[in-house]
Amino acid sequence: MNSISVNKFRDNLKSFVEQVTNEHRPLKVTRRNGDDFVVIGAEDWAREQETLYILQNSDLMKQIAASAATHSKKAGYIPTAGELDEIAGI
Questions:
Q1: Most exposed among 26, 28, 41, 49, judged by the fewest C-beta atoms under 10 Å?
Q2: How much is the CA Rg of the chain, to the nearest whole Å?
């Protein structure tokens, strides 16, 4: 994660916001007399929140582990060509 001073951030606010949203990389802003903070795009923040929700949900994690195990053994459900096309939006 890149890091810049709050003064540099303030002086170039528009370009740093564009950088954060276009590159999907958070930016740490440091302050001399206060706590640092991080700037992150709204889309990226929402994705992080979804990931945290899944990681904290033990039932979902068990389902993911079971699915990964059957997939590695090639023992899981194999969709038809039509189902694959529907999933892919073809």
A1: 49
A2: 21
